[in-house]
UniProtKB/TrEMBL annotation:
GO terms for molecular function: RNA binding. Residues 125-165 have a biased composition (Basic and acidic residues). One of its GO terms (cellular component) is small-subunit processome. This is KRR1 small subunit processome component second KH domain-containing protein. It comes from the Eukaryota. Residues 1-47 form the KRR1 small subunit processome component second KH domain. Residues 67-96, 125-200 are annotated as: Disordered. InterPro entries: KH_dom_type_1_sf, KRR1-like_KH2, rRNA_assembly_KRR1. Residues 67-79, 191-200 have a biased composition (Basic residues).
Amino acid sequence: MVQGNTVSALGPYRGLKEVRKVVLDTMKNIHPIYNIKTLMIKQELAKDAELRTQSWERFLPNFKRRNLTKRREPKKKTAKKEYTPFPPQQPESQVDKELATGEFFLRESQKKRKKLEEIKVKQAEALTKRQQERNRAFIPPKEKPMKKAKKAPTEGKIDVEAIKEKVKKAKNKKLGAPPVNPESQTAAAGGKKRNKKHKG
């Protein structure tokens, strides 16, 4: 029987001992299901005649107890302000500000002039900012210094005249025909021209 924090039980001495242990654990915020499981295992082991004399520690479960007393700390800690019994100062009203600057005693026409002047000053500042932003597009970027090109070595230069001669020789050669001397070709061409003149 349970009444508040007091428990009363009836039974043999051994049973009362186990009940006392279960009750004390539940008072310490440990769930009774763990103790009930161990009691059920012990009851099954007591039936076996061979295991009565042996130790039952290997059969009993070991439950890990978690410490729930440690409270989780928040990641962001906010420092509390010191308590002061006096309330904070009230912000100044528009009339108080005008009294401090002396605008309260000015006429309406003077107030309007002052406001217009302030507006003109703000407009002038805005114009200068816009012009500066527009002029940024016309400012040339800084150029990087030019690196001097390395001079090519003179040994690796191509001989142009030698290539021209090779090309001329290749043109003069005909496939399957014996090589013709350039001197004989020029002489033959000169003889043909003379024959044409005589005919005319």
